[in-house]
Design goal:
The chain is an alpha/beta fold and 336 residues long. Helix content is 46%, strand content 17%. The chain has a six-stranded mixed sheet with strand order 7-6-8-5-9-11. Strands 2-1-3-10-4 form a five-stranded mixed sheet, with helices on both faces. α6 links the parallel β6 and β7.
Length: 336
């Protein structure tokens, strides 16, 4: 009996001294963007999602964040989401046209929005809700929009000053793989060219392309403004961008209501964080470009009306083609 008591006491002491094993998470999510820089707004958004999801779930959700490590091209991320190699990704609308949803290229139309406020009003309102439902329906719920993110406002940067479409004639400009965007640049007289994002610095440095178009934050993080063919930053403000924070909708629907609520809360927090960082970094990145010697042509000095005169017929034609004329008028009305 004494031996038995001693054994029980020993076991009790061991139990007290050995910490209880952490309970395994009931759900693990792999989330990714193509941005490798930890100061990119996407990175802040993904980190916020992880923080909130793990906190509100009490550790029942574990989040694995990948910043460019699953691919620096957004098309790769969309493919990985479809294959189940990622659970949530950030993608530009243009890359989804390849999977049979031409309507999503509507968000790639140039001069669709006039300001960040105009963009937010549309994406957070009825228009954004209609786009979310349409994409889910068209893809068999494979892609569910968890939030509309911004990649700021895009400008043309090149080897020369650009104030009007006339100044772009003959220039090879790296653009996104979007039919409507390439159509716009062709109409301006430029030659749209495809170059992988990770190879663009070298292409600008060596003169493979005469210029490109992106926002201040992304172009300065990659130091494109320090190349001979990227030092003239022209504030065309042609694209107040929309980025899609996507999840496999079928996987989302298979979750419990409690898990959905956790993910919804984390997605909302991540979206708010990403936008806030994007807006803050606009001015900071512009100043960095100036400090580094970039030559800026201010928005007020550019013939925006001439660019819009090219963009609006493309908007009308594309909207009619895909049956979204009503949505186009909805956006235009919101700007008034």
């Amino acid at each position: 009996m004494k031996k038995m008591i001693a054994i029980l006491m020993t076991l009790a002491l061991i139990a007290l001294c050995v910490p209880a094993m952490a309970e395994a998470p009931e759900l693990t999510l792999i989330i990714a963007s193509n941005a490798t820089d930890p100061t990119n707004p996407y990175s802040y958004g993904l980190d916020k999602f992880k923080e909130v999801a793990e906190e509100v779930s009490g550790g029942k959700i574990a989040v694995e964040v990948h910043k460019g490590t699953l691919g620096e091209n957004e098309s790769e991320l969309v493919e990985k989401l479809a294959m189940g190699a990622a659970d949530m990704v950030v993608s530009s609308p243009g890359f989804m046209t390849a999977i049979g949803v031409p309507e999503v290229d509507f968000l790639s139309l140039e001069y669709l929005f006039d300001s960040f406020d105009h963009w937010e009003a549309c994406m957070d309102g009825d228009f954004g809700a209609q786009m979310r439902d349409m994409i889910a329906e068209k893809t068999g719920n494979m892609y569910r929009i968890m939030g509309y993110w911004s990649s700021s406002v895009r400008d043309v940067y090149a080897k020369k000053e650009i104030k009007s479409p006339e100044d772009m004639k003959g220039l090879s400009i790296r653009t996104q793989n979007s039919q409507v965007q390439q159509q716009f640049f062709q109409a301006c007289g430029a030659v749209p060219t495809s170059v992988a994002w990770g190879e663009l610095y070298q292409a600008l440095q060596q003169g493979v392309v005469d210029g490109a178009e992106n926002d201040y934050t992304n172009l300065t993080l990659k130091e494109h403004h320090k190349t001979p063919n990227g030092k003239y930053v022209n504030e065309t403000h042609h694209d107040y961008t929309t980025r899609l924070f996507l999840m496999d909708g079928n996987k989302y629907n298979a979750l419990t209501d409690e898990q959905k609520a956790w993910i919804d809360e984390a997605s909302a927090a991540a979206t708010a964080e990403e936008r806030a960082i994007t807006y803050r970094m606009f001015e900071e990145s512009k100043q960095k470009a100036i400090d580094d010697g970039a030559i800026i042509t201010e928005h007020a000095d550019i013939d925006i009306d001439a660019f819009k005169a090219i963009a609006i017929p493309i908007q009308d034609e594309f909207a009619a083609k895909i049956g979204m004329t009503e949505q186009l008028e909805m956006i235009r009305s919101a700007a008034k």
